[in-house]
Amino acid sequence: MKENSLWSEKYRPDILENYVGNENLKSTISKYIALNDIQNLIFYGPPGCGKTTLAKIIVKNIDCDYLYINASDERGIDTIRDKVSGFASTSSFKPLKVIILDEADFLTIQAQASLRNIIETFSRSTRFILTCNFLERVIDPLQSRCQVLKIVPPSKNEVAKHIHNILNQESITHTGEDLKLLVENYYPDLRKIINTCQMSSKDGKINLDKQVLVSSSYHDEVIKLLKKKSFSEIRQVIANANVNDFDELYKVLYERAEEYTKNIAEATIIIEEYLYHKNFRIDQEICLMACIAKLINI
Questions:
Q1: Are strands 97-102 and 65-70 parallel, antiparallel or unpaired?
Q2: What gap in Å lies between CA 130 and CA 246, rounded to an integer?
Q3: Alpha-carbon separation of residue 247 from 3, 108, 270, 271 (angstroms)
Q4: CA 47 to CA 279: how far, in whole Å?
Q5: pLDDT in tens, 187-210
Q6: What is the pTM of this model?
Q7: Closest by CA position to 13, among listed 66, 46, 56, 62
Q8: What is the dihedral of CA 41, 45, 49, 55, to 10 degrees?
């Protein structure tokens, strides 16, 4: 079988011992693996922190048949009725069946409601692992049927060591300054750090283009410029960030509203309004900047 050329997949761990993450969480998961059984689980946390990796480690290390579905691609009720229910209802030679619903926060409300009954109906033979970035998008009845575990990203030091090991295995010359720059700009998104390493490696050396590095502190920069009411500067920061998904920024604008306005209630209404609008807009950056313009005006 051909080895995966993508480093993020090539170095995705298959066993729990190689997983870069919280030791308490690893201890909990190791007990499940030892028992060859799991509860229904929800893993939540920021992108690239290891949710999907942990789910795949579980199914590879217990005796089970499993089905993987990316819910951002197949988010409707038909997926639940056909694929999920079909897999859960079929017989298996293994003692357990596990269904991984990756990015489950993209499932429609109707799909999530349908999933509740399936979880209970097939509870004797089937377990579910849901992963999501935003737990609040998963309905409460689903959360109550699962053990909810927050995936805390590994420390910056752990991430730097992991990247150092990958670069050594690929025989890529690098410096401590390179590692520091990568971690400072992309932490806690380990996947993005690994992908950037691969993209920047050429002829056995790593050559980071500092102009295209996306600073993870762009949220802080936006908040600072909102205090100055500088629309044009915020627009430039957003453009330089080269980000397509602004959900995290909307959340930051809400959680830190008191830092840039005294009228927190009105700011909340504006943010909620544009969180709704963005579902119907093709250009997410324009929608965000319209929200910023209204926040500046209050």
A1: parallel
A2: 22
A3: 34, 17, 14, 11
A4: 20
A5: 888 998 999 899 889 889 998 876
A6: 0.76
A7: 56
A8: 10
